[in-house]
Amino acid sequence: MTDQLSTAAPAPVLEARGVGKTFTGVAALQGVDFTLRAGESLALMGENGAGKSTLIKVLTGVYQPDEGQMFLHGEPASFAKPVDAQHAGISTIYQEVNLVPLMTVAQNIFLGREPRNRFGLIDFRKMQEDARALLATYDIHVDVRRPLRSLALGMQQMVALARAVSIDARVVIMDEPTSSLEAREVETLFRVIGMLRSQGIAIVYVSHRMDEIFAICETVTVLRDGKVVHNGRLADLSRVELVALMLGRSVEKVKRGGVTAFGEVKEGEGEPVLTARDLSRKHQISGIGLDIRPGEVVGLGGLLGSGRSETLKAMAGVMQLDEGSLTVDGKRVRSGSVAAAIKAGVVMLPEDRKAEGIIPNLSIRDNIVLAALPRLSRAGFTSRAKQDAIVDVFMKRLRIKAASPNQVVSELSGGNQQKVMIARWLAMNPKVLLLDEPTRGIDVGAKAEVQALINELADEGLAIVLVSSELEEVVEGSARVVVLRDGSVERELRGSEVTEQHLMAALVGENHSPAEESPAEIKERL
Amino acid sequence: MSLALEPSVGPATTKQVTRERIAGNVQRYGAAIVLGLLLVVGSFAFPTFPTLSNFTNIATQSSFLLIVAVGMTFVILTGGIDLSVGSVYALGGILAAYGSTWGIAGAVLLPLLACGTVGILQGLLIAYGGMAPFIVTLAGLLGIRGLVFALTNEGANTPLIKDASVTALGQGGMLGLRWPVVIAVVVVVIGSVLLARGRGSQTVLAVGGSESAAVLMGLPVARVKFSVYVVSGLCAGLAGALNAAYSSSGVPTVGVGLELSAIAAVVIGGTLLTGGRGNLIGTTAGVLLLTVIQNLINQIGSLTSSVQAVVSGIFLAVVVIIQTVLSRTQRL
Question: How far is B102 from chain A (nearest CA, A)?
């Protein structure tokens, strides 16, 4: 497709022509053309595995392209190392803040290029003044002498951005910069991005969040299977069209499928498998009661700080309770013990799979059987055959895409990692599955698969509790939704009440009319 | 509106900042404070403790370990470890004794050359070969001790230093302080200035704080990691040479377990064993603490040296516990 920008647009800062990159016979990028102009904000879109990360790594000097040529300000350029790209004015902001937590804000900003006095010693006073001045230009006011780790995550990301830009950057590449930020922090980030653009700095923005893409990006390049499938103005595309381009499906098909991949949902029948009564913990949750029946998905709604993750943690035995009881199949479960919860059949998929779940250097097999090992062992020995059987069943059933069960988990895409995590807990033969943000940070295609899987598992009789900050996921995925507010149950939505409107109204309190605050505003707080 | 929207990690309150600052200072100067207390208590408890000759004695005893610990501080700040320093210390002593036949130049340059080379080899393997510091320097600990024994006919020879100018380097001095003490102070001062304001110091701290971030920021990570092992080798060699000059001989069995005393002193001095934070004033206080504890136990007289080891061990454990608590406080 042709570039639809007018010829009057500013000269390209960074260009790639016919770039290709092959890994052991597999083409990760093929004939990629890519143009970035001064002051432009470009969304780089594509499913996981479409070649986004590879392209970013080529642009930032981590990889060298096998074919094609890159141009910087119209001149042919090549970067042998990341440092070369940085010197050429290409900076990268990563998903995780890549700064040194123990060092101060000022030290972090000036690492590697500290101002010196005439004896060649570091001039800390000047460093702090410069750091303060630099941050002030972006309207960020923070004590630059404080260690970085004492700042909120969003502020740390802002410091990373200030550092990136202060190295005379002409291009800033942002790889999912908001995935760990709160709504308020995202706002600040967007404001700073706006300022950067007005200074003529070009932005490449990678994110799975459509709202953000449409809010701050002007143009879009869509990659699929290592090739550029679309290049143009974002305003000319609807969301559905963009998703269709990424997935390579027709618009009609995407529309028909709805936003999520959940099928029909129904309330469970019979006796509750899990009964929670009066779950309380000081300052976090108070008097929460829940009944979960086999075969149903119960959504747990609530804003940040409403106690939804805490409730899950309490049920999974991760969090000690001050008061309250939990019974599974009529039997009381000791609170505050993960082992007791697992034994009773309650397992949780944690929110942050990198920090709390996946063991990246182990194979898929080892990650799956890890929690089940005690059950598979006899006298301290585990049968490899039994392990293989279990791993085989779950890899097929959850459609985990990998070269073999021996592949290291860190090499898998986010979606497949999440499936490995789910497999680990299913291997425990649970009765109740607690899911905290099961689709966060995974791409559109894998998201649909995980959602479909949740459906299937419920149909097979598993009781599931679903927490998600995406309203549509809660609404379309759950038969009923228990809404939490300020640490206690606000109300329960059932049947026809399970809609985004009702949920939003409940999130902010029943007496609060949804009209006072627009749905978009409420959504932003999630 | 009463929404529970307070972000979990907000801007810190003044109270938090104050608490954090106090915790940080205790971590930094805790060893010095305890040292001060110990000196006061010791002075009241034992009349023979607060004498000029005893203090000079403590200073001399501390000086060798202190020089080794300065090098170790740099290594630990990068998140590494150098287990070879005890053996390198012995090598430095032996070579100083052999080198003393060429006078003071030979007694100083030969050990520095050899021990610097050991540091270079270890640094190359660790920084450019990507090998684990623990294993590389463990190999150094074993291998260099073997070399020391090979150089001294299985440890049967104890080369003596006959050159008076060399023994004067260990036993002479100025202002009532022996040369090893003066040299140790100079090493600490130079090290402190370099660490606080020097070119590479920020990279040292960054590598220890987060190596991957340092790499992504384009800092000379490998060069800095290499340098700290060279510095550590040089420090251990210098200390060994001074000790040989002090005792007029190169003893092959000297410095066994010295690496552990050095690591203990560095950690007691408030440097994080994981790297990224620490200073040499703390290390100095840590070294003095270990020596003063030993000295006080000797003052009691009826206690054996094994008691001293127990006390030092307990002390180290307490310090580690306090450090953990303090760093949690600072995490907010």
Answer: 37
pLDDT at B327: 66
Residue A452 lies in a domain: yes
Q: Work out the pLDDT band at A416, boundaries 50, 70, 90.
A: confident
Same-domain check for residues A491 and A405: no
CB nearest A100 (choices: B8, B201, B210): B210
The tokens of A526 are what? Answer: 């999630």
Structural domains of chain B ordered from first start: 34-330 (1.10.3470)
- Test mutation, A111, A161, A469, chain B, max B CBs within 10 A: A111
The pTM for the full model equals 0.70
Encode pLDDT of A358-415 as tens digits.
Answer: 777 788 888 888 777 777 777 767 777 778 888 888 888 777 777 778 888 877 777 7
Contact of A122 with chain B, judged by CB distance below 8 Å, is answered with yes
Specify whether A109 is located in the same domain as A155.
Answer: yes
Q: Do A336 and A438 fall within a single domain?
A: yes
pLDDT attached to residue A25: 65
Mean pLDDT highest for which of A95-109, A133-147, B132-146, B290-304?
B132-146
Which regions of chain B are under pLDDT 50? 1-12, 331-332
Q: Is the pLDDT of residue A259 over 60?
A: no
A309 and A451 both lie in a single domain: yes
Closest-approach residue (CA) in chain A for B217:
A83
Instruction: Compute the nearest-CA separation of A266 from chain B (Å).
Output: 31
The pLDDT of residue A61 is: 83
What pLDDT is recorded for position A265? 65
Q: Average per-residue pLDDT in chain A?
A: 80
Query: Given its phi and psi angles, is residue A46 left (phi above 0), alpha (psi -120 to 50 degrees) or beta?
Result: left
Using the 3D structure, point to which of A113, A144, A167 is the last residue of a domain: A167
Select the residue of A82, A92, A304 nearest B5 (Cβ to Cβ).
A304
State the Cα torsion B178-B181-B183-B184 to the nearest 10°. Answer: 170
CA distance, residue B320 to nearest chain A CA (Å): 18
pLDDT digits (tens, 9 = 90+) for A487-521: 888 888 887 788 777 777 777 665 444 444 445 55
- Choose among B9, B203, B331: nearest Cβ to A153: B9
Q: Is A475 helix (H, G, I), strand (E, B) or coil?
A: helix
A162 and A150 inside one domain: yes
Sort out which chain B residues have CB atoms less than 8 A from A112's CB and list them. Answer: 202-203, 217-219
Verify that A437 and A492 share a domain, yes or no: yes
Q: Is the pLDDT of residue A478 over 60?
A: yes
The 3 state secondary structure assigned to chain B is CCCCCCCCCCCCCHHHHHHHHHHHHHHHHHHHHHHHHHHHHHHHHCCCCCCHHHHHHHHHHHHHHHHHHHHHHHHHHCCCCCCCHHHHHHHHHHHHHHHHHHHHHHHHHHHHHHHHHHHHHHHHHHHHCCCCHHHHHHHHHHHHHHHHHHHCCCCCCCCECCCHHHHHHHHCEECCEEHHHHHHHHHHHHHHHHHHHCCCHHHHHHHHHCHHHHHHCCCCHHHHHHHHHHHHHHHHHHHHHHHHHHHCECCCCCCCCHHHHHHHHHHHCCCCCCCCCCCHHHHHHHHHHHHHHHHHHHHHCCCCHHHHHHHHHHHHHHHHHHHHHHHHHHCC
| Pair (A456, A393) in one structural domain | no
List the single residue in B with minimal CA-CA distance to A486: B4
Q: Which residues in chain B are closer than 8 Å to A486, comparing Cβ atoms?
A: 2, 4
Query: Does residue A149 lie within any of the structural domains?
Result: yes
Q: What are phi and psi of A245, to 5 degrees?
A: -65, -40
Q: Which domain holds residue A135?
A: 100-167
Q: How many domains does one find in chain A?
A: 3
A32 part of a folded domain: no
Residues A463 and A318 in one domain: yes
